[in-house]
Write a structure and sequence with these properties.
alpha+beta, Pnp Oxidase, Chain A, 9 strands, 20% helix, 37% strand, disordered C terminus
């Protein structure tokens, strides 16, 4: 995924956390109220923090984008991110061609001109993240040691947990 330079520190942090994660899980609320999740390949994080994905315009999900969650996980790096927000559909042919990748050909054999091809623009409102950059072995050892001793996993092994709220709102300006 290509991440454009962000103008806000919280969005820069989100871009850094998800930069190398190739697949996200997109979850939305279906018409019957059930949650539905599906893997999606992020194409770009634009300068405003929106994430862009290719989508099939015939999919039921395009009708249910008012409340959406996009989850990222990188087990090897100990990075987990949950973004809440909303989705929008974009059918701009120029943007579709610019974001087109040969890997999308498997889902859209007609190419970037496919009538079924659109873009899902995900606009995040908030983010929760867990970032435990220590090695998998250190994290596993810390968890085992905590289980044996009955003590909590030490914070330096747990990593950081944080939240960014108001991601889609412009930062206040001082006049």
């Amino acid at each position: 995924m290509h991440a454009h330079p962000q103008t806000r520190a919280d969005l820069t942090h989100v871009a850094h956390l998800i930069g190398d994660i190739a697949v996200a899980m997109l979850t939305n609320v279906e018409a019957d109220g059930d949650l539905a999740s599906r893997p999606m390949v992020p194409l770009e994080m634009d300068a405003d923090g929106a994430l862009w994905f290719f989508t099939d315009l015939r999919s039921a999900k395009v009708e249910h984008l008012r409340v959406v969650n996009v989850g990222f996980s990188d087990i090897a790096a100990g990075t987990y991110l949950s973004l809440s927000g909303r989705g929008e559909i974009d059918t701009d042919p120029g943007r579709i061609r610019r974001l087109w990748t040969p890997l999308a050909q498997a889902w859209f054999p007609e190419g970037s001109d496919s009538a079924a091809l659109g873009l899902l623009k995900f606009v995040p409102d908030s983010a929760d993240y867990w970032d435990a950059p220590k090695s998998r072995m250190v994290r596993a050892f810390g968890a085992v040691a905590a289980a044996i001793t009955g003590q909590p996993v030490p914070p330096e092994v747990q990593g950081a947990h944080g939240a960014h709220v108001g991601l889609s709102a412009p930062e206040p300006t001082v006049s």
